[in-house]
Structure formats: structure tokens, C-alpha cells
Design brief:
Elements lengths: L2 E4 L13 E4 L5 H13 L4 E4 L12 H8 L3 E6 L2 H4 L14 E2 L2 E2 L10 H18 L8 E4 L20 H19 L4 E6 L15 E6 L4
Parallel strand pairs: 2-3, 3-4, 4-7, 7-8, 8-9
Antiparallel strand pairs: 1-2, 5-6
Helix pairs in contact: 1-2, 4-5
Length: about 220
């Protein structure tokens, strides 16, 4: 699915309500124009691009002018975990990736308790925020969502087995939220709530995070 229309909004007195259109980084320019029209027809006022989307590099495309002319807000993020730990690291650093049935897996997420993983994720988050921060509409909103239909595919190494998939996800998201706070203390990071009972949530999200939706599996 090339896009997601997200109805959730952050309302804390500082941010006005936002109705979002998520655009995949794989979506072509012509399809993007159609999606912007769709967003306007559905009264969306915000477009969310992946953190390494070409939108942040090329400002001449027609769909970008459409966004500007209609005063739409820009947010960044989505299902971007693969950007935080490049898959090219797997060959020499497989221990940074998730363990499944005794085998390290290149696909979906990573090992969030490995110190080397956390260091790499922090550095890559820093690089991504450096490149796109000025292009995101203040008050700035970013998103970090688990891989679609693979929300529970996290790590089963001895250290990670102490945490459920939903908790591993929050550990990883918290790492990114900490980096974001250094750039902009008012910025917020959207995440998916696994619909866990509050007293069962062993890893709380950072204060600069907010839920944009729920999934019912953990």
C-alpha cells in the first residue's frame, strides 16, 4: 500500500489538529500528485514523508508546489527502521540484528538491547534529523512505526527475551526520541501503541512521544 491516511492527531494545546497523509518513499512523482489531490479532497492538512525521502532533496517537483500552494504542513517518518540500521552492516555486524530461532535475520527491525545497535541507531537518527529538520513544519512532528504486519518480529536473543516485542519497539523508539530532543525540545515522535494495559507496560515511552494509533498484538 503506497500511502496511509491517518486520522489521529496530537492535541495538547500547543499543536493544532492534524489530519495526515503518509507517502511511501517508493511512490513515484505522478502518483504523488494524485495523492496530494486525494489528501485535499479528504481535508488532510499534513503530508508525512519518509526521513530519507527525495522530497527533502528536490524542491522542484509539481507535487511539492501543490503542497506549498495549499499551505499543507510537513512531517517526517513512517516505517523507517531500516534507515536507522542500514542492512549493509549485517555482513560484519550480524549481532546487531534480531535473532529468530537461533539465526540472525536481516529483515525487520533489529536487536534493541545490543549497545552497538543503539550507538548506530543514535548516529543514524542524528544524521537524518540534521538533514531534514529545517524542512519539517514547526511544531515539528516525526513518526517511527514498526514494519507493517511484522509488529512482533523483534529479537529473541538472551538479553531481548526479557522484553516483549512491544517493549523492544519502545526501547528502539526511545533511543530515537532522545536524539530528537537534543535537536528540538518541542518536537514530538509519534509511535504505535500495542494496546497494552498500562500496568503491563514495562518500558514507558519518552515524554516527547505520543501515540498515533494502536495495534492489538504484543
Amino acid at each position: 500500500m503506497p500511502y496511509i491516511v491517518n486520522m489521529e492527531s496530537l492535541n495538547n494545546g500547543n499543536l493544532r489538529q492534524r489530519k495526515r497523509l503518509f507517502i511511501s518513499r517508493k511512490t513515484g512523482a505522478r502518483e504523488r500528485e494524485k495523492l496530494i489531490y486525494l489528501a485535499l479532497e479528504n481535508e488532510c492538512n499534513t503530508v508525512v514523508f519518509s526521513m530519507n525521502d527525495r522530497f527533502f532533496k528536490n524542491k522542484n517537483a509539481k507535487y511539492i508546489k501543490m503542497i506549498t500552494n495549499h499551505g499543507m504542513q510537513i512531517e517526517a517518518g513512517g516505517r523507517d527502521f531500516s534507515l536507522l540500521l542500514p542492512r549493509k552492516l549485517f555482513f560484519f555486524n550480524s549481532g546487531m540484528f534480531r535473532l529468530e530461532q537461533g539465526i540472525r535475520k536481516l529483515t525487520h527491525h533489529f536487536c534493541p538491547t545490543n549497545p552497538k545497535t543503539i550507538a548506530a541507531v543514535s548516529q543514524n537518527a542524528n544524521d537524518l534529523f540534521t538533514a531534514i529538520m529545517q524542512n519539517v513544519t514547526p511544531p515539528r512532528i516525526f513518526h517511527l512505526l514498526p514494519d507493517e504486519e511484522c509488529e512482533n518480529k523483534w529479537c529473541a536473543c538472551p538479553a531481548c527475551r526479557a522484553f516483549r516485542p512491544c517493549e523492544q519497539y519502545i526501547i528502539a523508539a526511545n533511543t530515537v526520541a532522545d536524539v530528537l530532543a537534543k535537536f528540538d525540545s518541542q518536537a514530538r515522535l509519534g509511535y504505535i501503541d500495542y494496546n497494552t494495559e498500562p500496568d503491563a507496560a514495562g518500558v514507558p515511552p519518552r515524554k516527547n512521544m505520543f501515540s498515533i494509533g494502536t495495534v492489538n498484538n504484543c
